[in-house]
Amino acid sequence: MNAKNQRDWSVDALDVLRVDEGFRLADVDPESSPGHPGGKARGADDLARGAAGLDQLQERLFAASRTDATDASVLLVLQAMDTAGKGGIIRHVVGSVDPQGIMLTAFKKPTQEELAHDFLWRIEKRVPTPGMIGVFDRSHYEDVLIGRVRSLAPADEIERRYGAINDFEKRLTDAGTRVVKVMLHISRDEQRDRLMERLDRPDKHWKYNPGDVDERELWAQYMDAYQVAFERTSTDYAPWYVVPANRKWYARLAVQALLLETLEGIDPQWPTATFDVDAEKARLAAG
Amino acid sequence: MNAKNQRDWSVDALDVLRVDEGFRLADVDPESSPGHPGGKARGADDLARGAAGLDQLQERLFAASRTDATDASVLLVLQAMDTAGKGGIIRHVVGSVDPQGIMLTAFKKPTQEELAHDFLWRIEKRVPTPGMIGVFDRSHYEDVLIGRVRSLAPADEIERRYGAINDFEKRLTDAGTRVVKVMLHISRDEQRDRLMERLDRPDKHWKYNPGDVDERELWAQYMDAYQVAFERTSTDYAPWYVVPANRKWYARLAVQALLLETLEGIDPQWPTATFDVDAEKARLAAG
After folding, report:
1. How far does the CA of residue A273 sit from the closest CA of chain B (Å)?
2. Which end of chain A is more exposed for a tag (fewer CB within 10 A), N or C?
3. Which positions in chain A touch B286 (Cβ < 8 Å)?
4. How many domains does one find in chain B?
5. Is residue B211 part of a domain?
6. Which tens digit of pLDDT belongs to each residue from A41-78?
7. Could you report the predicted ipTM of this complex, rounded to two decimals?
8. CA end-to-end span of chain B, whole Å?
9. Domain annotation covers residue B145
């Protein structure tokens, strides 16, 4: 099974979306669909096929971890401006996987107790255990994104955090976790359209927060903060991936492809029995 | 929207599966499909339609809780003998819901730290917050099931627990949680067939545990322990439901119906906007 060959990708998503040396966020077109020939209908077909593949790979990963055959796990980190589609990714991509294999955490504004600790304290508690796919809806990167834009901490503390994040992610990786960091990239105009739709529909009002418009005023500063975060924390062991997200079908397919290719890289196998199969059959038949 | 009318149920699952005064587990046929005209194909259609209804109701419940419009939540407790299909229920029924609205916990053999506390200590920590659907894969009932059968605690401690469970569930209910306690009921012969299938398929070996056959020897004692638990803890505020589970299509449909009817009972509504919609539209259009 290979994500690229099985579906319509012309290249690996892990290659084409990766943030490497010299990357500039300003050069990424949020309308684009790199690596995929495109088309909403074709995208939907691909997504369904990919879901079946993801389902199999996840079950194998989980099974392998039950008998200590692997310490591998996956951590998907989702960061984005409001309305960029994190929720849709969780619902349609993560949601296609058996919930028993998913460890999902939505990080909100830190509580008083969380603020009293180092910024990684609450993150450590939600790191996936072997065999699991962890998903962070927002993450420790908030502490160098809104943290930087809104000066929620002194400048030297923000600086310290980039190094602390790299150390943390290196430790996770050494322990068997594949860290997949995704920024969903929409344009400022697209955000306006999506916020307007929430205002137009009474069943979407609950998703609208007047504070979102305040953050929107700081768009350029946020893009700068993302650029700096990429430069400081896109490492060999835990690179960033920027996913153009104005087209929802593409963003979902791209994140699914990143997960598929990561699991294919692990290549988990069904564990062999740790008991005598024939003896167990005899025992079971007898009673 | 009404679960009974929308689909093929002739009665409410909440009524027909409920454990009332005089209930005897020994009288339930695990092959039966009470309240549903039956048929695997028809069941699959119903399950797909039910998933769409569940999806809508869950989103409304979640939305209503975001603006303090409700403190309601749901807690689905799943108990069963091995192979009865808890995993399938989680995958196919719970798995059809947006993962952002689900709080799933699989309770394993207690750790040393958990054993050092009262048996409800680890349970309390995983109670669903408002707007969420909590799911317990095994639960505090293990402490009066295997706890009783294997004498893991003194007899008077087991006796104490029934009352403690009722007090706990009353408190949950008073705080807005609908507690839906489900026992999936298979026959001993069906379990043998399912265990044998796990032994026949190398990709299922990881699900087989020789200890399962030891528990199987205690089948009658387990059925007695369930009967006592029903008599002591099936209350007005938190009744038990026994779901015949030899037919997987029926068990899934029945648990889905229990969830649907419970959510319909809550009848969550889209919350009204807490901001001036027109003013926000103007502000958004301007920037």
Report:
1. 6
2. C
3. none
4. 1
5. yes
6. 888 889 999 999 999 999 999 999 988 778 999 999 99
7. 0.93
8. 41
9. yes
